[in-house]
Amino acid sequence: MSCILSLKCWCIFLAVLCLFTTCCMSDSNAAGIIATAMACFNDQAVYSSCQESYRLNAQGTINVPREATDAYCGGPCLTETKLVLSCVDNILYSFRFYNGASVRDVRYTLDAGCGHSGRRGDFNVAEHLDDDPYSYGYDHYYGHGNKLTVPVYLLMLVSFVLLL
């Protein structure tokens, strides 16, 4: 009986060890993923009509003067900038620009800068870091769903322990 119990303990130990080794491995091509995301900023198929000085860059800045707001928002620049953001977001969901802004922060800045409010013409991404246009003061309740997810491996471990 004790031999079966000890064999069972070793099997559980090996299963947990295998589980942890697979969830702790990093992607061997992480630098390649970042390089691919950075290539979105120089993609000639995406940025073809927008004036180069108005383009979103890897620093996370959009250099559009207030007097050029109508041309930027009504022309191809806004569409092309949103395409670049989609390209980056599809390759690397948690992408952060050099200034610390997320893709969501830049999208909010574009919406505010091209909107018809007092913020029209304000494309300063640094002022909109972690802003949420839909929060209405409930920022601690919404917008952080990706931080609340439980890893699949942890769920598997808990269910495995409960089966014992």
What does this structure look like?
The chain has helices at residues 2-23, 30-39, 69-74, 76-91, 103-114, 145-148, 152-163. By secondary structure, it is mainly α. The chain has a domain at 32-132. It is elongated, with a radius of gyration of 23 Å. The two termini are 17 Å apart.
Secondary structure layout:
Layout: H1 2-23, H2 30-39, H3 69-74, H4 76-91, H5 103-114, H6 145-148, H7 152-163
Helix pairs in contact: 2-4, 4-5
Describe the structure in brief.
With 164 residues, the protein is an all-alpha fold. The chain has seven helices and no strands.
What order do the SSEs take from the amino end to the carboxyl end, as H and E?
A: HHHHHHH
Strand elements, count: 0
Identify the overall geometry: elongated
The average pLDDT is 76
Total helical elements: 7
* Main β-sheet description: none
β-strand amount: under 5%
The percentage helix is 40-55%
Judged by helices, strands and strand pairing, the structural class is mainly alpha
- Structural Rg: 23 Å
Report low-confidence residues grouped into runs of 5 or more: 135-145
Cα(first) to Cα(last) distance is 17 Å
Descriptive tags:
164 residues, mainly alpha, 50% helix, DUF7731, DUF7731 domain-containing protein, signal
